[in-house]
Amino acid sequence: MAELTRPGVAAEEPARPAVAAPSRRLDVIGRRNIFFLISLVIIIPGIVSMVVNGFQLGIDFAGGNEFLLTFQNNPTQKQVEAAVASEGVTPFVQQSGQGSFIIKTPQLDPNKFQSDLERKVGPIDGNKSSFHQVGATIAGETVTAAALSIAAASALILLYLAFRFRRVQGGWTAGFQFGGSALLALLHDVFLLCGIFSILGTVFKLHIGEIDSLFLTAVLTVVGFSVHDTIVVFDRIRENMIVSSRLTFEQVVNLSIMQTAARSIITSFTVVLVLLSLLLFGGDTLKGFALALLIGIISGTYSSIFNATPLLVVWRRLQPVRR
Amino acid sequence: MLIFSLLVDGAGYTYRVVNHYPLTGSVPGLPPNLNGWQLYNHYGLDLKGGTDIQLQLTNFPAGQDRASVQSRFIDVIQKRVNALGVSEPTVQPGGGGNHDRVEVQLPGVSAADALKLLGRRDKLVVTKWVPDSSITSMPFPGYKPQITPLTSDMLTNAYAGLNPQTSVGWVVNFQYNSQGAGIFSQLTTDAYSACQSQGPTAAQCHITNWLDLSPDDIANWNTKGVELYTSVDQGGKLVSDPTISNGPIPNGQGYIEGNFSQDTAKNLAILLNSGSLPVDFNVLSSSEVGASLGAQSIRLSVAAALLGLIVVIVFMIAFYRLPGLLASLALLCYAGVVLAVFRIVPVTLTLAGLAGFILSVGMAVDANVLIFERFKEEMRAGRTIGAAVDAAVRRAWPAIRDSNTSTLITSLVLIFAAPIQVKGFAVTLAIGVLVSLVSAIIITHNLLAIVLNFGWARTSSLLGVARG
Q1: How confident is the model at residue B296 (pLDDT cuts 50, 70, 90)?
Q2: ipTM for this prediction
């Protein structure tokens, strides 16, 4: 039976390790400064916005009440706003569907508020409504737990990567260079995502830019995914460093990027497809989540190719390890 | 493990079909997960509708073990919830070493109704009235209430019923134990003699029932008395204020009148039966989701997930041809196994949990893509098909292992440290990643190896290799 082989390669030739240089090449390492610059251009406005404006906080973090009320008589936004304002509350009212409104208030008696609105606007369908009340204690704890879990997850990932990459030339030092570069790329994604949401929420005042626990979930997912992407490239570098000792480190890195780029882009593309379907059809509660993931995944793919690996090269130059 | 999960899950559904049970949801009367027979998707409150309340316990009595106070608190809440007839309620402890948190989840109950049941400490307080010349306040100037040692813990039974004398209106019947009966007998004897000597309007003729009346309230009787002496429904603390004009009650048996409706009488009976809560509490957060809103979330998420799955499958087949088809099969197996694991554990699915599952599908796809890209490379490098499959799986493994491990690390951190809303996400993601580690290696690898044994499968157009 004829074995399938690539044209031009004799079947009896022993299999070569898969390091053959691909035909098309993009010199990522040589042009690293351009890619760093692109990242900075996107990140810096976000950081400025985070420092100056902060975030539009959801009730998970800010505390207070959030109602989703569905009125059976399909009132206008103006009617609902007027009714909320007459309760002595600055109205935050947003229409979310046929007769449905999201209303945010500070702490108040939810039952009285709801029955007052029913009297002033019209009957509420309790089956299609929701109500969340978060006290200041819980809100504070959520913020602490969020910060803590991101820090702990980052530290553990750094340690794990250092452990996994300790066998490349340079030992633990090199291990921490790999882990550290992955971590920096990860922080890149976290800052980029938070920055964009800060701008969406405070500059454009969009509800989708609101920070809640679901957004926190998205950030942590992006952390996982970003590292995921970076590790695939780093794993290839680790392998190529062993099988092709003739190449310089820069060459090995560039080769590895080229070899894994197809996979990174294909995977991200499939995830982007799933997220787009969530964003378009996934219902109101999931839209912000899907958008956050979408931004994060795209950023994660970019940063693993164009930030993490060039950073590794720069780091290795600044802190050379003996070959 | 995978086959086991599918077998148990499949057997569970077969059992249901054979016995004509509905295919989804909990079947009443069957305990959950009885040998794995009772399997269904467990949905969180944000998907099936209901109320979730976090309580902060305060004013722990000094010198008592906090953990046991907390568990007594939970017992009482549990009794109240069970008496309400809610399906699958959960009452669980929290607050770590402080033992000062309790979370109550009530499917299908509105926040207002839930708080009616839980929102007060609801300690039954029985008072007599004693002379105090400094009291100017109504209802009895010159008298203030004095708390008697009777507590609802001394009740052996309480139940709602029609007024046994008039058969009109609802009352709450009660029965004290011997200790309570003794105290109650003394109280009613004293009150009866006051009724005889001073007439039925006299303060000392009354034995008054309150909810949560505190010594502090009595100390400020002149300012707060009128407000407190109004019925519980109207914001006061008064339950009933009968006169003991028919004679002492020696056997500890009686009933409370108080303008009850059937519901309010039943509620009070529930509260009395369940005993009083050992500590006070505040509501930290409460969250209510309407049932059809939750159902809509499920519909939309499932639709989005299915659409995403179809798009991914079409894309994989278009891009990778035969291996893509095999990967899609593996992906469907994967999704089946994960859902089976969710039902067996069981994992309660929330909106965030569904998101975690969808994400894990994405990561499972990634493992397959890694293997196929590697397979193409190995083929180009001139390996035979069999060797290329083995090499692809072997060489893709470190990347799959390391990337999934780091995701696993993140999700484990989340399970232990993250805010409660994120935990559901972390659990489903962790399970998904663990299963995908196994499925990518075993299912995809074996499917590839088996199918590529057939000669027809080895054409380059089916493998999509020559294009590269």
Answers
A1: confident
A2: 0.77
**Partner-chain residue, chosen from B49, B316, B403, that has the shortest CB–CB distance to A231:** B403
CA nearest to A321, candidates A106, A99, A166: A166
**Which domains are delineated in chain A?**
32-58+137-318 (1.20.1640.10), 64-134 (3.30.70.3400)
Per-residue model confidence as pLDDT tens digits over A89-98: 776 787 777 8
Which residue in the set A13, A135, A286 is minimally distant from B285, CB to CB? Answer: A135
Q: Tell me whether A118 touches chain B (CB under 8 Å).
A: no
Q: Give CA–CA dist B274/B53, Å, rounded.
A: 19
The DSSP annotation for B228-260 comes to: HTSBGGGTS-EEE--B--S---TTSEEEEEEEE
- Domains of chain B as residue ranges with CATH: 124-285 (3.30.1360.200), 290-463 (1.20.1640.10)
- The answer to whether B402 touches A164, Cβ cutoff 8 Å, is yes
Span B299-311, mean pLDDT?
A: 79
In Å, what is the CA distance from A156 to each residue of A29, A149, A159, B222, B416?
28, 10, 5, 62, 14
Instruction: Reduce the DSSP state of residue B225 to 3 states and report it.
Output: helix
Interface contact A193, partner B, CB < 8 A: no
CA-nearest residue of chain B to A280? Answer: B304
Q: How many whole angstroms separate alpha carbon B432 and alpha carbon B439?
A: 10
Chain B, residues 406-465, CB within 8 A of chain A, namely: 406-407, 409-411, 413-414, 417-419, 421-422, 425, 429, 455, 458-460, 463, 465
Burial level of A92, CB count in 10 A (0-12/13-18/19+)? Answer: middle
Buried b (16+ CB within 10 A) or exposed e, B54-77: bbbbeebeeeeebeebbbebbebb
Assess whether pLDDT exceeds 60 at residue B400.
Answer: yes
Q: How many residues does chain A have?
A: 323
Say whether A277 and B301 touch across the interface (CB within 8 A): no
Residue type, B293: L
The DSSP symbol for B457 reads G
Q: Select the more confidently predicted residue: A177 or B86.
A: A177
User: B109 by DSSP, 3-state: which?
Assistant: coil
**Cβ pair B304:A227 closer than 8 A:** no
Q: Is A13 on the interface with B (CB under 8 A)?
A: yes
Pick B19 or B454 by higher pLDDT.
B454
Bridge partners of A68, per DSSP, are A102, A130
Question: How far is B413 from B268, CA to CA, in rounded Å?
Answer: 44
Residues sharing a CB contact under 8 Å with residue B310, sequence separation 6 or more, in sequence order: none
Shortest Cα distance, chain A CAs vs residue B94, angstroms: 13
Which amino acid makes up residue B433?
A: V
Nearest Cα to Cα of residue A187 among A230, A249, A232, A144:
A230
Q: What is the pLDDT of residue B5?
A: 53
pLDDT tens digit sequence for B135-189: 777 777 788 888 887 777 777 777 888 877 777 788 888 888 888 788 888 888 8
As a whole number of angstroms, the distance between CA B304 and CA B310 comes to 10
- Cis peptide before B250, with omega less than 30 degrees from 0? no
Nearest residue on chain A to B110, judged by CA atoms? A126
- pLDDT, residue A195, reads 94
Partners of residue B51 on adjacent β-strands? B106, B288
Structure tokens at A128: 């299609």
Place of tokens 């402890």: B93
Host H or E run for residue A268: helix A249-281
DSSP structure class, residue B443: I
CB-based contacts of B144-149 (< 8 A; 24+ apart in sequence) = B144/B218, B144/B221, B144/B225, B145/B208, B145/B210, B145/B213, B145/B218, B145/B221, B146/B218, B147/B213, B147/B215, B147/B218, B148/B183, B148/B187, B149/B183
